[in-house]
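Format notes (please read before filing issues)

Several people have asked whether sequences and structure tokens are stored in separate files. They are not. Every record keeps both together, in the order shown below: the sequence lines, then the token lines. Line labels are part of the format and must not be stripped during preprocessing.
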Amino acid sequence: MDCLEVGAVMDTPDIRGDGCVGRTVGLADRGGRRSCRGRRGRLLRERLLHGRLLGGRFRRGRGFTLIELLVVVSIISLLISILLPSLKKARGMAKDTVCKTNLRSIYLAQTLLMEVRGRFQTLNNEENDGKWQYNYLIYDGGDWKSNFGPLVTDKKLLHEIKLLYCPFQTDRSHAFDTSDNPWPPDDLFDTRATYARRHLLTN
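Then the structure lines:
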């Protein structure tokens, strides 16, 4: 049966973009309907296949293979092995600068004190205690009269107690504010500096 005998026939635009142009508003002929379905089926299959391929590439792009991961880890390890010595060297140079600055500050404070008093302060209070055992003391358990004590008590001479401590020092007996060397000092206990004065040169 011809479709012209069944209903009104007209060409309609390709609205869906599938290459199939409708022919009738009413009933279409069977051949045209089958051909449209065939085209639409092929286009649908092509689009699904294309989408799967794109999706597969997209999923593969988001992840790493084992080899890629190992390469990244090896590069990071290599960079760390190169940078760590440089960082340690820079840290050591910074500590060395702080240490030299501390020594210069102590020298200036000691020079000013000697100009005011006309002499160096004693290493300890008791002459019979020896000449070197207490050359690192700040507080001798009783007063601030000997060694570094006068430098600390006068803020115009040494404004910061940490200037008497070297940043390289790790011994708890000579490091700043430890259980073995507390600051502020405890009564009846010695408080020691990192640096020391030398007998006959500064006494």
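For reference, the curators noted about this record: DSSP finds three helices and two strands in the chain. The first strand starts at residue 137 and ends at 139.
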